[in-house]
From TrEMBL:
SUPFAM superfamilies assigned to the protein according to its UniProt record, in alphabetical order: CYTH-like phosphatases
Origin: domain of life: Bacteria
SMART domains for the chain: CHAD, CYTH
Domain CHAD positions: 224-515
CDD domains assigned: CYTH-like_Pase_CHAD (cd07756)
Name the UniProt record assigns to this protein: Adenylate cyclase
CYTH domain mapped to chain residues: 5-209
GO MF: inorganic triphosphate phosphatase activity; metal ion binding
């Protein structure tokens, strides 16, 4: 057994009811080349300090029993994360029994890590996974990989969570083969990209943490980073936001998490739009279409969450005993339930699974470059600072072209302005880390002021349209309540429009931070 190796794997979620279909998929039968799936009972015991200090340093220590073949212990540490395709250093040695013995490692690199982070610390059993793994080696194109289908649970104390996933581990060849095979299999079996390890699930169980809203961390770019690396970093961030918040939609756990999933998809759309001229058509067009479709599947849920959580409470506070307002809430809650069902339906559509895998490939390697021209390749290889300036210029011009008489814009024109402002904001967030922090902060403050006004105007327009769908099912009292909401929105729109011209003028008067 080789003590040290680098592990590159693609992880996918699969509904247990589809496992048999996966095993019998025609493409899988072809690439197995006559080899059979071998099923092994795996019990893996993960160790850490009581406060999980090793996990905080990116270290995972595991003891595993592989059926009747005895025990082994493994240390894993991140070797850089290509978002959808984690690459890890891994050290494994055999054990005579299931007792942790870190002195068994002989490789100097792992010994240095353990001496630095684990020596003299209390390390104990934290959680375990108990599963059956069906595995087989595959030859696909010029790559060799292992397919593993894991079914079982992760357990910490009395708490446990089910595991049903597929892993493709690259043994030789290019990572592109992992995604290409997964996309082929996805035509037969619903497979969804996953970025959560068994260890992260076990730690959540140990800490008693329930999933909640995941907000994006700032995009960390550097002056010497290529435009391509920056682009892939942006895609990776949007993909992580989408996947991390998906559970909030599936289980209706957190209104903000539902919103942040939609934000993640929007950030991905903006990243593709910003780099549009430097990307070949083909799959980029497909990605934009898939993103638009999937984002639309979340629109209704967000609209009703805003109405029920922000708008209606203000009306209820002023008219606490109004029967029509209570009827309006009940009708809106029914619409929200329907919108949630529609969002969940979207998550189970093939388009969503395809979107995740293609985005994962784009974030993990240069898949975007297929069909790119020499000019596009040159632009994406240039330093990000060279490409950022014209991209930000273009976004800035779209926002400021309406700087006169902005309060006279129609509802569709205000919506278009809001989308341009949002793209400008995300562009500033994406590229801001390579410019002066002070200048970026000042620029974003004026941009945010304008965006907040436009957001309130959009909420009013959307709510009016959504309420119009309710009128046929409301009583006279309910229709009166709709009138109360409409009157409130009318006053709000006038108030917000009064400040919009000033906000737009203040934004246009400042100096762009990238100049």
């Amino acid at each position: 057994m080789t003590e040290k190796q680098i592990e590159i794997e693609l992880k996918l979620r699969i509904d247990p009811k589809h496992v048999t279909r996966l095993k019998n998929a025609p493409v899988l039968r072809e690439v197995k080349e006559g080899r059979r799936l071998t099923t092994t009972h795996l019990v893996s015991i993960y160790h850490d300090t009581p406060k999980l200090s090793l996990a905080d340093k990116g270290l995972a220590i595991r003891i595993r029993k592989k059926g009747t073949k005895g025990w082994e212990q493994t240390v894993k540490t991140s070797n850089g994360l290509r978002e959808a395709l984690p690459s890890r250093h891994e050290w494994t040695v055999e054990l005579e029994d299931g007792v942790l013995d870190l002195d068994r490692f002989t490789d100097k690199d792992v010994k240095k890590l353990l001496n630095k982070f684990a020596k003299k610390k209390k390390i104990d059993r934290i959680f375990e996974s108990d599963l059956k793994r069906s595995a087989v080696d595959l030859t696909y194109r010029d790559a060799v990989m292992e397919l593993a289908i894991d079914q079982g649970v992760v357990r910490s104390g009395e708490k446990e969570t089910p595991i049903s996933e597929v892993e493709f581990e690259l043994k030789s060849g290019h990572p592109a083969a992992l995604f290409d095979l997964a996309l082929e299999l996805q035509r037969t079996v619903p497979l969804l990209l996953s970025m959560r390890s068994k260890a992260s699930r076990g730690r959540d169980l140990y800490l008693g943490q329930a999933p909640g809203a995941y907000r994006a961390a700032p995009v960390a770019l550097s002056d010497d980073m290529s435009a391509e690396t920056a682009f892939r970093t942006m895609l990776g961030q949007g993909l992580r936001m989408t996947l991390s918040n998906e559970v909030c939609v599936r289980q209706d756990l957190d209104v903000e998490g539902c919103h942040q999933m939609r934000v993640g998809l929007r950030r991905l759309r903006v990243a593709l739009n910003l780099f549009k001229k430097n990307l070949p058509a083909g799959e980029a067009v497909l990605l934009r279409r898939l993103l638009k479709t999937c984002s639309k599947g979340l629109d209704g849920l967000r609209d009703w969450d805003v109405f029920l959580g922000e708008t209606l409470p203000m009306i209820e506070e002023r008219f606490p005993d109004h029967a029509g307002v209570a009827e309006l809430r009940k009708a809106a809650e029914k619409q929200r339930a329907d919108a949630l069902a529609a969002a969940r339906t979207m998550l189970d559509q093939p388009e969503y699974g395809q979107l995740l895998l293609i985005l994962g490939a784009w974030a993990s390697y240069s898949r975007w470059a297929s069909g790119a021209s020499a000019e596009q390749m040159k632009a994406m290889a240039s330093p990000v600072t060279e490409l950022a300036s014209p991209l930000l210029d273009a976004a800035y011009k779209r926002v400021t072209k309406r700087d006169k008489h902005v309060s006279e814009l129609s509802v569709p024109q205000l919506h278009a302005l809001r989308l341009d402002v949002k793209q400008m904001r995300y562009g500033a967030e994406f590229f801001g880390s390579v410019y002066s922090v002070k200048k970026v902060k000042k620029f974003r403050s004026k941009l945010t002021a304008m965006q907040e006004i436009l957001g309130k105007l959009q909420d009013a327009a959307v709510a009016e349209a959504r309420l119009a769908d309710l009128t046929a099912q409301l009583s006279k009292e309910g229709l009166v309540a709709v009138g109360l909401v409409s009157g409130w929105f009318g006053a709000r729109v006038e108030h917000e429009l009064a400040g919009l011209e000033d906000a737009v003028a203040a934004f246009g008067a400042q100096k762009a931070f990238w100049k």
